[in-house]
Write a structure and sequence with these properties.
With 248 residues, the protein is α/β, with parallel strands linked by helices. It has one domain (8-183, 214-242): 3-Layer(aba) Sandwich (Rossmann fold). Helices cover 43% and strands 15% of the residues. The protein is built from eight helices and seven strands. The protein has helices spanning 17-28, 40-48, 63-77, 101-122, 148-168, 185-191, 198-206, 216-227; strands spanning 8-12, 32-37, 54-57, 82-85, 130-135, 172-179, 238-241. The protein has a seven-stranded parallel β-sheet, with helices on both faces. Helix 1 links the parallel strand 1 and strand 2. Helix 1 (17-28) crosses helix 8, helix 3 (63-77) packs parallel to helix 4 (101-122) and helix 4 (101-122) packs parallel to helix 5. The longest helix has 22 residues, at 101-122. It starts with 7 loop residues before the first strand and ends in a 7-residue tail after the last strand. 46% of the residues are buried.
Length: 248
């Protein structure tokens, strides 16, 4: 299928994990994609594997760099049809009172401020019928101990999504996805190791009725659906990609 042929898509955090899968899915559906990430090597690798894609190096918390990313998309593709604000970071798993203030501020800048900056810069270049999608987390709806500041930042993403949806309707639709735990770089950033210990992995999966963690492809599928004509009447939605975790 080429549902996005002739469309221009920006994906932040595109060097790995969810972002790489999102970029690939849109490209395979015919879109021209800007693969944006602080990891330029990774972004270049992903873009190089996709027809009509370009890499862009960005610190998503920086205003000038967001403006430059939007301008690069417009210079190359003439417009922005889908803005995917996927970039985000967790913090080391620990109770909130043990978290350094600078880590808190940096995480919120990447997880929340970045969306504000990218959307503000992109909107003048987004035609009617365009779509903005962000990556929140099921933890933004159903928080668990050990990641309180991270979960709060993702709750902010959900609220920001809903507020933007009201402000930007009917020209632009705004939605977000709320994934459950996935085997991405998230584990390393929170636990300091590539994979969860076997006992912890089992505990996580035991809390998910579908009996597995999310995959990057699960998230990419949701992004493409929300940006597609099949979702043309959906805005302000925080779509759970959680295998039923939130109903337990």
């Amino acid at each position: 299928m080429n549902r996005f042929e002739g469309k221009s898509v920006i994906v932040t955090g595109a060097a790995s994990g969810f972002g790489a899968a999102i970029a690939r899915k849109f490209a395979h559906e015919g879109a021209s994609v800007v693969c944006a990430d602080l990891n330029m090597t990774g972004a270049t690798d992903v873009a190089g594997s996709l027809a009509g894609a370009i890499p862009f190096e960005i610190d998503v918390a920086d205003e000038a760099q967001n403006n430059a990313m939007i301008q690069a998309a417009v210079d190359h593709f003439g417009k922005i049809d889908v803005l995917c604000c996927n970039a985000g970071v967790p913090h080391k798993g620990n109770y909130m009172i043990r978290m350094p203030v600078e880590d808190f501020d940096r995480m919120w800048a990447i997880n929340v401020r970045s969306i504000f900056l990218a959307v503000r810069a992109a909107i003048p270049h987004m035609p009617e019928g365009s779509s903005i999608i962000s990556t929140a987390s099921i933890g933004g709806k159903r928080p668990r101990p050990g990641l309180a500041p991270y979960n709060a930042s993702k709750a902010a993403v959900i609220n920001l999504t809903q507020g933007m949806a009201v402000e930007m309707a009917p020209k632009v639709r705004v939605n977000c996805v709320c994934p459950v735990s996935a085997a991405t770089n998230f584990d390393f950033q929170t636990m300091g190791q590539k994979d969860l210990p076997e006992e912890m992995e089992k505990k996580v999966i035991d809390g998910i009725p579908m009996a597995r963690r999310a995959t990057p492809e699960d998230v990419a599928d949701a992004y493409v659906f929300l940006a597609s004509d099949e979702a043309k009447f959906l805005t302000g939605v925080a779509l759970d990609i959680d295998g039923g975790r939130s109903i337990q």
